[in-house]
Fold:
Amino acid sequence: MQLNPQQLRDAYRRMKTIREFEERLHVEIATGDIPGFTHLYAGQEAVAVGVCTPLTDADFIASTHRGHGHCIAKGCDVVGMMKEIYGRRDGLCKGKGGSMHIADVGKGMLGANAIVGGGPPLAVGAAIACKVRGEGHVSVAFGGDGSCNQGTVFEAMNLAVVLKAPAIFVFEDNGYSEHTGASSAVGSKDISGRARGFGMPAERVDGSDFFAVHAAMLRAIAHARSGDGPSAIEATTTRFYGHFEGDPQKYRAKDEVARHRETMDCLKRFRARMETDRALPVAELEAIDREVAALIDSAVAEAKAAPLPTDADLTSDVYINY
Amino acid sequence: MPQLSMRDAINQALHQEMARDPRVIVLGEDVSGGAGGTSGEREASGGIFGITKGLLPRFGADRVINTPISESAIVGAAAGAALAGLRPVAEIMFADFVGVCMDQIYNQIAKFRYMFGGKTTCPVVIRTAMGAGMNMGAQHSQTIYALLTAVPGLKVVVPSNAYDAKGLMIQAIRDDDPVVFFEHKALYPRKAEVPEEAYTVAFGEANVLREGDDATVVAFGRMVPFAEKALDTLAKEGVKCDLIDPRTTSPLDEEAILESVGNTGRLVVVDESPPRCSIAADIAALAVSRAFDSLQAPVEQVTAPHAPIPFSPALERSWVPGPQKIEAAIRRVLEKR
Structure:
């Protein structure tokens, strides 16, 4: 499917928003203003946006601890996210969730997840809901290379196959399970092959190439809608930062990130493609860059000025009624 | 005597026990880190909190096993290796992740000895980092020791300082029963005098940190230094209390608690967890059922609220039972004359 200029602008805007959001968090975290444990998605934007571009609010995704990119790609409010990460009362989850638990179920975003392998079973459940409703919607389980070694993920894949659930398992192989190389943690070194072993089609794509991810996603959606059940996409990618902010990354070669920023930057590759295809003028991309920068600036400013939760919020939202 | 952080004290215990006993192995996520990385650094991590530092270079990858992210396999494999004659120390990075491998702990490890008619041992240690206060949110901050204390067959350790942590860890490794060892993240940097040589601290023997006739305060883990702070404030007014750190919740030194309550007649239990089915409730029940005649005031339970742990520091500060709440509870039991 050829993407029209509006779709291209939208995809670029989302990728750029994720990048700016994460690069800015990296700076703000260093000032000590942001509490807790933050895992940045910068470098992997083409995966989240390639996967989420064909989805609507009626489709579902389940995310990971590295979830900001998935949230933005699925349409979560960026200012609400920033406020959440700052622990503010009017954050997307009222400051109760934080970076690792941003969710907006109304947008089909079933939550970031601080348990590796926590999301895929949830995504299969949402896929069952899609199947029961019969309106052609799908559910995506995002996971990293690390998650593909969790029993919950195996169970979720098998269940989706036997139920022919319209689920799509997206494995983002950024090379590292936390501080350990994926090559020493994934026995077969072949995540898509593992998914095929469960009885679903699976393909490996270049996760720095938005168009490759998007095309694979369209095939996965067509497969799901045809009633044939789940499929998997293994996207090879990289993270530009550590496992979490503050990670000294001793497991990485000193020049690795710099090299990857040169050769695997999905935004650079998208812009180059726009130029060769003459699809979008540079001026338009630059205008988007400026708008995104302004959005992130105001998101940070609003978040810093937003009110904190109060003690009255401590025990609300545990139940609906009790 | 050297001052060591709780982090270094536990690390030293692991080093000493691995050197003493070739059956001791360590396994878990990023216990060394680095494997498969591009820097060539063999030990890029040493555990996310540095507790297993130096073990890989010293004892090698057969005994220091850097695993994939697979909690059920980590704990289950540790249990199997224990049945087969090793003495594994498995690390579950955050206590919350016990949720992932609960079957292996709850249905397998805890029950082997009983189900097998007392004919086997499963000397596994599960080390895990717990506790709120670092804004890590609802899935990286829980204490959950009460959950596992409720399981017959498990021993449960909750150290509050570096000295105890080292001795309790060595005891845990040498103990023939399965042990779950909860390390509070906020206590890792706190220093105490720790002897260089190996020593054990017995399970089920409370540490009485302070003595006084006015009330009995029982606290665990990070709540022990918080209780000390509260008692410092009250000491200025001449209030003196017993401060009891049971150190293990299973076995529990019931006699130490009952003896103290028998003397003071007033009990405050401090527990970093929600109140229902908590250690606080357990110890309050102990006092009410076995020291009823001594009690001169209702037992005070200082706990977190019945709510998950919030992310926002503004809320988390209120969730954690702190020195002020402890002080207020002690004042309440003292008011009932």
In short: The domain at 3-193 of chain B is CATH 3.40.50.970 (Rossmann fold).
